[in-house]
Write the structure tokens for this entry.
Amino acid sequence: MRDRNRPLVIAGGLSLLAAVAYAQGMGLSMGVDGIPANTRKIAPSVSATCQGTAAGLSNVITSAKDCTGVNFIAINYSSANLAASVTDSNSNVYTIATCGTVVANQCIYYKYNPTVTSSMTFTATGVGIAASIQVFGFRNVKGVALDKDVGNTQQSTSSTTCQTPSLTPTNSNELILSGYFSNTDAGSSTYTIDSGMTALFSPFNSGVSFGGGLAYVVRSPTTAIQPTWTDSTAAAASACNLIATQ
């Protein structure tokens, strides 16, 4: 049994009281086990209620989503035309990752520490943009800037697959995101991706919107990843990209 008159000592030889005092002096919040709360290795996780898709010819908007607790939002935008803006009902300002414009406008918009509410919509604004958007919100994202942005693969010839450039994350438990654009004449097409990634997609809708998808995975190993999107119908043109953040 521990002597109650002796101070509790944590890893590193500091008493718990001394560790708390040190953390407070450094501007850190200390957990009950003596580990600064903002240095814990908690992996990012997806929000089950802050995700969705939308597609249309003009001013594309999702239904309302509960994004409570989310600290990172990613939006994939797919179209032959650039939107005037991609934003949300809280007027968060998004940063654009490398955006392909040669074959298609396939871009991932992202925002760290957004203003969130229990009822948010996401919008791609523009007339005649024929766009689709896919949205994921995440918790426990530590970064304030992308770790890696390896750009787009763009294909102007018919193909059922699109392989992204290769990316090697710097840290374990990084959030990896990939976006996809498809110009397919079949509205019944489905899009899948390998490398253990989970995807949302909006199929091509002739005369209304181009197809698109957004996928994510949280990876422990710091080894290269180079996922491939597969379209159930050959796309006349396609594009895909890959980014990573802590």
About this structure: The chain has two domains: 1-40, 45-245. The first helix runs from residue 16 to 25. DSSP finds one helix and 16 strands in the chain. The radius of gyration is 21 Å.
